[in-house]
Amino acid sequence: MTGEQVQLELTVPSTAENIPLVRHAVAGFLDGQALSEALASDVLLAVTEACTNVVQHAYRDGSGRDEPEIELTAEYASSALTISVRDRGRGFAPRVDSPGLGLGLPVIAALTQNVEIRPFPPSGTEVVMTFALEVAT
Amino acid sequence: MTGEQVQLELTVPSTAENIPLVRHAVAGFLDGQALSEALASDVLLAVTEACTNVVQHAYRDGSGRDEPEIELTAEYASSALTISVRDRGRGFAPRVDSPGLGLGLPVIAALTQNVEIRPFPPSGTEVVMTFALEVAT
Amino acid sequence: MQERDSGSHPQFERRQVEEVVTELRIKGELDIGSADALRQALDSAEAEGAIVRLDASDVLFLDSTALGVLLASAQRLSARGGRLELMNASPAVRRILDMTLIARTVHLIP
Amino acid sequence: MQERDSGSHPQFERRQVEEVVTELRIKGELDIGSADALRQALDSAEAEGAIVRLDASDVLFLDSTALGVLLASAQRLSARGGRLELMNASPAVRRILDMTLIARTVHLIP
Ligand SMILES: Nc1ncnc2c1ncn2[C@@H]1O[C@H](COP(=O)(O)OP(=O)(O)O)[C@@H](O)[C@H]1O
Ligand SMILES: Nc1ncnc2c1ncn2[C@@H]1O[C@H](COP(=O)(O)OP(=O)(O)O)[C@@H](O)[C@H]1O
User: Fold this and answer.
1) Among the four residues C71, C76, C87, D110, which has the most C-beta atoms within 10 Å?
2) Residue A36 pLDDT > 80, yes or no?
3) Which of A20, A100, A103 sits opposite D31 (nearest CB)?
4) Is the link from the previous residue into D110 a cis peptide, with omega within 30 of 0?
5) Residue C90 pLDDT level (bands cut at 50, 70, 90)
6) Residue C52 to residue D55: CA distance in whole angstroms
7) Which residues line ligand 2 at a C-beta cut-off of 6 Å?
8) What's the per-residue H, E or C state across A20-56?
9) Do B107 and A94 lie within an 8 Å CB cutoff?
């Protein structure tokens, strides 16, 4: 370990019950870093929203996958924390019948320095969230 | 003009009536390029959604700006079309009282190869949409 | 088991229903710039009866704002036992309709 | 001009109102994993009266899914002339409340 770049990788079944588990894992990962409490809680909220979207939307209408999963990578470099949440679901698609309030993506966008949404081949979605770290010398 | 990279830049007052105008300008810009009709109409839809969000959300509660504007840049390179929609509004923020159905961002994400949302300093929002072009020789 | 029984001895009933359908033909682009006009046109059509059929032959563009207006109308109509139908949608218009699965609320006529 | 007049000669009325408030203290993290439990707890509280006060002292986390549950409850209560109140929100909880301006629907008690 050089202390330059620290990584977390996590794959869990895509279920509602696993959302707190993922959040706690990320919290543990962040604990090792010098993050302000406010930033850490923003990160946990954004991660939760992204993972909740996987559970609610990605594998709807049983997209062929036997074992729907959430994949998460967190990477902590000197100036930014980057967290990617991926699924192998049906791909990003709007829903007029969403059970949610439509606040997930806006909350993520409001909390992050940058959010990217893109296909995750062959058919899933990747949401990459970047958080600017406080200036660290 | 080398034909390698073609650009469109556009700044219009942020009003509902200007949305078709922006769309038509982009349509005109795309006309010069070899895009399939299906891709072109996806682009126009995504652009419309992003600009509509500026009109509906960016300058709400009069964010100090005398002349709220939508700024758009379209850049056509050999393998991708990149369109950036920017505002100088209050910054991205979720709304439980949004008048919309919450379909704008999801529609954009579904239509694009990649969408990025990020702050546009000092206080606005930039939405960068990338469309993969059909393989052109 | 009653259901099973009637399942194996199917019965058919046929009747004719007279429906009054209000057709509304729309020409132009439907977005936030024309959403109010669309809303008003639908309001007037709804006042004539509970079944409204939009002819979208000449709708060149339709976005999520317009979709929201259609959806609201469809919901009002179906609450009255009616429905909103949409016919002759172009490929561009179908794209957003399909994408959002709105066909569950608005009745698409191919 | 009647309004102007009463404005320049202000009148005051004071009365006492007896309210029954159902307080609900929540402990834990509120997300999609606990949304059903939250919904049920609110349902039961709503059955007791039209004013429900959540004590969020021990709510360690609250996301947009939980917010949706609160909002639905707040709307049901206010339709009955009541309200949903939330007190003792931690900074992390306040963050999402402030961000979404939910305070217009849920009454925050500082
Ligand atoms: N991982 C995903 N896979 C497929 N579709 C998604 C995914 N995440 C989000 N979406 C789509 O984006 C929409 C908006 O998401 P969001 O803003 O979180 O609101 P909500 O989940 O409340 O609908 C969802 O309704 C869904 O249609
Ligand atoms: N340019 C912007 N500036 C500020 N907030 C925005 C902007 N674009 C979108 N938003 C926020 O994101 C939310 C989701 O946008 P969208 O998916 O288009 O749904 P809708 O516009 O129907 O609410 C909006 O309700 C708003 O709170």
Assistant:
1) C71
2) yes
3) A20
4) no
5) very high
6) 49
7) A 106; B 53-54, 56-58, 87, 89, 92-95, 98, 100-105, 125
8) HHHHHHHHHHHHCCCCCHHHHHHHHHHHHHHHHHHHH
9) yes
